[in-house]
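Batch manifest, entry 17 of 40.
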Amino acid sequence: MVKSKPIGLAWRSSTLFIVSTVGIGLFTDLFFYGLIVPLLPFMLKERINIPPDQIQGYTSGLLAAYAGASVLFSPLAGVIADRVSTRQAPFLIGLVALLGATLMLFLGKSIAVLIVARILQGISAAVVWTIGLALVLDSKTIGSIFGFISIGELAAPVLGGVLYKKTGFPGVFGVAFGILAIDFIMRIFLIEKKVAARWEEAQEEQSEEDAHQNEEDGNTEDANEEEPLLRKKEEENYRVPEGQSKAVRSYPILFCLKDPRLLTALLMALTQASLLSTFDATIPTEAEQLFNFDSLKSGLLFIALVLPYLILGPVAGWLVDRYGPKPAAVLGFGYLVPTLILLRLVRPGGTPQIVIYCVLLSLNGFGLAAIGSPSIVEASTVVGRYHKANPDFFGEQGPYAQLYGLNSMVFSAGLTLGPVVSGALKESVGYGNMNAIVAALCLVTATLSFIFVGGKPKILKKR
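Output type: structure tokens
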């Protein structure tokens, strides 16, 4: 006898609910990163009584613990996601790891506990990003999701600064546990499309089965419908020759790394993450030096950076989904070059200088919104080409979860390198010159995006 369908199967497996659940999961991860990192020095000082001259070293160590765990576990999460029958279980396990990390950060009173908490937080990030993006692969909304989720990383310091000033650690972690509860409930209710299709297969006619199969294979429908339209010469460019090494056969995404389009997409992810974390690390310290701001006022400065992102981010993501990643990547990174350089104009002073700083941060916020999604959309497109040209080599599900594991690893590296490198540069060459160096990185990224993202432009093909 066929088991009855789960209650609410239709809406629990709908594209809208799946995309919303994954979006909240990724938002939670970035929100927690932005919420916890600025509080680490206060935890070390107030709870563990670390001497002031050692706080920076311990803070860097805790940042490294998070990044190391995420970098090491991301590829493994990708392999697991491509091989398990359902991705909901590992998606939930990632949240359990984040819950454990949050409890340890809230209650921990030793360096060892904080290190374990940061490692768990890094593992959770690897799982959530890898499994989550694999779940929404067929939705065609990855750009829109990335246009939304990075708001969490930028908004968290604002909320964290306000709550810490007014309520201390209990208020900060109270909000964190509330967001975790919402995230957990949504992940519990989620039903993957391929799982839903199995229920429909058992209870409906073959025609209904075919309809769900088409829905499940949303990302690979190009291979079924557009493959005859692909020019033979173009498809040959993505062929994987026979006789690949055991490492490539076991982890096929490695073969795709020879493609400059994919490498440029990963550079965009690294640059984007570095920019986000650089603003997190330098705005509070610069505001303290220039305007003698405390944690509350420094946190409020992030509103100037977040509002443009809040307005333009989702629109930019939708445009990337519709028109491709090249325009947003080239214009976004190119636009950030002058806006970053202009940050050197701010001087110590009163209200006029504070207004100038807020205006310049807002200008940078528009640039950050534009670069929020081109990287992952371009990477998915490139890997999709390889999958279509080599379905047997990459398997039925393709190497997408491996790609998202790799992307998570690179993004985590950027979140770690940003504060470390920008902090060192700020101390050695000053805030203005630090931003000029970051602007140069954006210029390089914009140039490579123009050349490689979406394929070479016509002006270069003629040469």
